[in-house]
């Protein structure tokens, strides 16, 4: 017998590891990645590769040469940031801009706070919003999806997103009925054959990934349910008030980055609250802010901003909303 | 609320209880029960019989200790016990197997209990019965309900939610009737008419055996519980069976419950009906690398090494020997430590399966919060404790922590959450005691 | 200049002036009148805020000095007598001379002397390990080597020597006492630095009887009392099987060092002894920095 080991209990450990969870998320994003390649062709592959590669490279450079500490690029978190960043940009984005986005996401969004687990804001969204504000034209020129199986190769045609059509039309004073001919139907938005960012177009692919994450318990239901619920409730009320001006809840759910945001970005571990009650408030808050921006804001889409704003509130939520302590609430008998 | 599902690994669930041969030398620690250590009433050279009182529990919370064998007292000195520290103990050299008069060691069932409530409590105290689930709280103290408190339910804990351990399971199968009579005696001693036996759903045979016989015992009902760790935690069990929640920092008495382990119920049966003190108990000796894991009826004071020998000897690959289960057990520094009243199992683990995983930064995944059965925030308490912010550790209700280890078990970053939490508890406990004085 | 600029200038100017006036009055109203001598004393202090004086920080110490109007019983271990004299001069008081102290680690249970019997895995905290078990060597009094003292030191004056696994105090030690408090086993003691940094102390805190103590560690104090007998100055006390040398009475004669059968008594910074025939087996002088 060798030397005995002494340590405090527990003496066994569950199967969860950071790597396992992170690559689980990556796996959950695979369907959406495949769909994006289907619709946007090699451009999508290019954007995703550059984004992931750049995120890994910047993290490596910063950890190795700036912080002179251990390098942890294999833990999968930088890969997720890279994929999410690419999901949030149009497929025709020039590579230079993409590099800037990756640098901001990893450098400012993540490493400047101390790296994994310490960042306040979702790094991919920091990068995305930075690009959106700095390069508004490039970031809002969306190529029309063209399934790679379609005949012939032509120059990419660009067009607006459903939310863009809605915002623009309403601004001009048109009603929803007037716009309905330009807007894609539900099936189209569900499958993803409409303008938009790389990864956000296909709701169904994202939902498959989300289901996988829920089943594998990578994420819990709290944040998505609260987010979804508040969006449906908020948009539903206005839709019932005036269906000619306000779009219906399903339209809001299936367009823009809603599903991507709800399941993949709002649920980011580090930047979301810890207790179930705080998670519900966080999700609901993000949903309401999203809808406020979509309905009254200057931008047609508000998911990124909403999540970033709620990220900032997380420390407060963690402080104020504690889990229900055992023996606290219900009185015996 | 909370909980985890570690692999059950009940390797010895099908192994009948074997009687372990009495070793030649035993050392019986004086501090076996929660509370004050007992005082030795024998001296070096004294001849003792099995079942003879050798140390008296004099404080309110302490328990008598009896000689598990007949023989000669070698010394009253110090030995390393399961705490890893040297503690006072009585060493006895076995000579023959002579028992005290009046102890009934036959397997014959004695159903009728003629003693009244006071006599039952007195007998349990005299026979040195303590909680055998692990906490080793003196049982007679539990039966003395302080004035102003009203107890209406006795709960018998047959959950055994710790992976690997099967001693309670085997006891329920092989001494079913005795456990039920013991439960009836405890009910009488407590003055209640209702007893609930809680068993995890992964032991259908025990559920069936107890459920079938329980009909003959008025007031006793057997309940299957969801398989979840820590379902057998006292407070978790009370809630699962009665829906009542013990308030923070209070005892189960507060919600009218008293909880006893099935092992305790059996020991009470033997003490009251057979006049037999607590000198032996069932211990599971298990581990994947053991050649002959099993459940053994062991005299208190037997060295752990003798137990492992009976189970096939220490495998070369052993990296850790644990007193108890893998979730809450205590790693032993030496194999010479004696089995005590609170030893429910000895678990041998290989280097590979017991090694801690690499510690990585907290990613705030909130798993520790969602698995905590007490609704605490382990990540925060561990951090505060590491930073010595004791006041915030206290307001974060660290003292509610039952040290079940679910947080550390589930942490994907492999952080030593419970290590820090335990330290926080120890410090805060000290601060609270100082404040009172 | 058009009107907008003028308006902006005026409005901002009014706001600024208004705020300044309000701030002035508020500042006057809530002014804290403090003894100016506190600042003077505070300036003289080393600003280490280590708490070694018994007060939370240097400023609290300065306040205490000024309030006391005397320096009796007050000492800044970091600044030492020099600083206390300067403070005394500034305030016109009498400084109390204190022997400079230094932290002394009273355990020699190195890997060599107290071989490791088990392996510890878990949080690197002596306080936690102390609650868990006796220690890797089995000695329930000895150093656990997980460095709570190192973490507690604000002056980088203590570190764990990798070859022995024991903490080493170096010259940067100011005797603030943080490590004394941090050690869960009370191994570290503040002792006078001594003339020419020469010190003699019992490097063990084991209170077990000789047998068990020796079983875990070759250089444990076994409480044999030989040192007590050999000491001509009554400087050594034996309690709970453990000897302790009173630095006030000790004359640094070194007789006890030679007498100790387990080499548990250490001498520091003495010149090497001349070998004396059979008795040449004098304990090796510690290489420890002063």
CATH class of the largest domain in chain C: Alpha Beta
Number of helices of chain A: 15
- Rg of chain A, nearest Å: 21 Å
Give the total of beta strands of chain A: 3
What coarse outline of chain C follows from CA principal-axis ratios?
Answer: elongated
Percent of residues in β-strands of chain A: under 5%
End-to-end Cα distance of chain A, whole Å, is 54 Å
Low-confidence stretches of chain A: none
N- and C-termini, Cα separation of chain C: 75 Å
The biggest beta sheet of chain A reads: 2 strands, antiparallel
How would you characterize the overall build of this protein?
The complex is a heterotrimer of chains A (333), B (437) and C (290). Chain A is globular, with a radius of gyration of 21 Å. In chain A, α4 crosses α5 and α11 packs parallel to α14 (276-296). By secondary structure, chain A is mostly helical. Chain A contains 15 helices and three strands. In chain A, strands 2-3 form a two-stranded antiparallel sheet. By secondary structure, chain B is of the alpha/beta class. Chain B is globular, with a radius of gyration of 21 Å. The two termini of chain B are 36 Å apart. The mean pLDDT of chain B is 92. Chain C starts with a helix and ends in a 22-residue tail after the last strand. Chain C is elongated, with a radius of gyration of 27 Å. In chain C, α2 (36-44) packs across α3 and α2 runs antiparallel to α4 (80-91). Chain C is built from ten helices and nine strands. At the A-B interface, β1 and α1 of A face β15, β16, α9, α10 and α13 of B.
